[in-house]
Amino acid sequence: MKEFVFDARDEAATAALGRALAQLLPAGTTVALDGPLGAGKTRLVQAMAAAVGVEPGTAVSPTFVLVQEYHGTRDVIHIDAYRIRDEDEFLSLGVEEYFESEALVLIEWAERVAACLPRERLHVEIAETGDASRRFTISATGQQLGAVVDALAAEAGALTN
Q: What is the pTM (predicted TM-score) of this model?
């Protein structure tokens, strides 16, 4: 499993990471987002959505509605598993159809439904390191997404400038 660690000193660096991910991820990628409450999962999703042309302010946490769909130059499916009771409830959302689509499928609190996720996926673990700084540990399963991790590592310097 390939891994890349990115230390974002502020929200601008988080936004740069989101833009880079949105550009590098192939169609149909599932991204599992994990981290404590307030770590920045939704903020990263917002940056990715903005990078594919979703109107700013449109991407919001789907905590109560569970699934949001955003349309830009690419479709984004934003799922929040925080209030999901179990795997059956998660599957009842129709996630398998999303996984088979060309959309970017971004799942907050993914550790709660890990057994239901596609085998090939990107995992982003977010840890708070300060008021606005975050550590993103990005790992991939599968060769195609391993190349994304390599590309992010190659662009690391550009992400912090």
A: 0.93
